Amino acid sequence: QKEVEQNSGPLSVPEGAIASLNCTYSDRVSQSFFWYRQYSGKSPELIMSIYSNGDKEDGRFTAQLNKASQYVSLLIRDSQPSDSATYLCAVLPQGAQKLVFGQGTRLTINP
Amino acid sequence: GAVVSQHPSRVICKSGTSVKIECRSLDFQATTMFWYRQFPKQSLMLMATSNEGSKATYEQGVEKDKFLINHASLTLSTLTVTSAHPEDSSFYICSARTVYEQYFGPGTRLTVT
Predict the structure, then answer these.
(1) Does residue B30 sit at the A interface (CB-CB below 8 Å)?
(2) A42 vs B: CB within 8 A
(3) Which helix (H) or strand (E) holds B18?
C-alpha cells in the first residue's frame, strides 16, 4: 500500500471553476502536510502547508485536512490556465526527516 | 517563502568527467538538505538526505561513491556526480528545510554526452 495516494489524472477543469485535488495517507500519526505545484520542466514550488484539522485559505487556494479520515485536499478557486501543472501532495511522518510524496495529479485548466 | 538557489542551472559534460552542483539556502539556515533526481515524466526520486557536519544518508540503490554529497555549512550543500555517464543525465533538484517547511531549488539539468 502506497503511503501517500493521489489520483494521477489528468484532471480537466474549465477556466473559472473550482479545481479539487485529493490525497490520502496511511501514517495515522503524521502531523505535517504540504501541497506543491510543479510546472513541466521546473522544480516543485510549495503552495500550501497545513498542520491542523480544518481549512486553511491563502488567496485562491484552500487546503483541507481531516486527520480522522487521513485525507487532505486542495481547492483552487477561479481556476486559471496558469494553474495547469502537476500538484504534489506531501506528508511528513512524525519523527521523520524526509517527506513522502504522492505520485502527483496532473491538472489542466481549459480556457 | 524561503529561497533556495542552485548552480549551475544547466550543464553539459563529457562521459567520464565529474560535475559539481551547488545548493544554497539564501535567507535561512538549513540543518537538513535533500537531493532529488527526476527523469522526464517521472516522479521525484530522493537520492540522499544530508545534515550539516555529518555524512549524508543515501537512499537504497543510490551509489554513494558516485554521488558525493558535502553539507559543509548551514547554507551550502554540494552534489558531485563522479565519472558521469549518459545514464546520469537527469534533472537534479536540491531542497532545504526550515523549521516547518521544505523548499526546492530551481534544479540543475545535467546532460552527459
Answers:
(1) no
(2) yes
(3) none
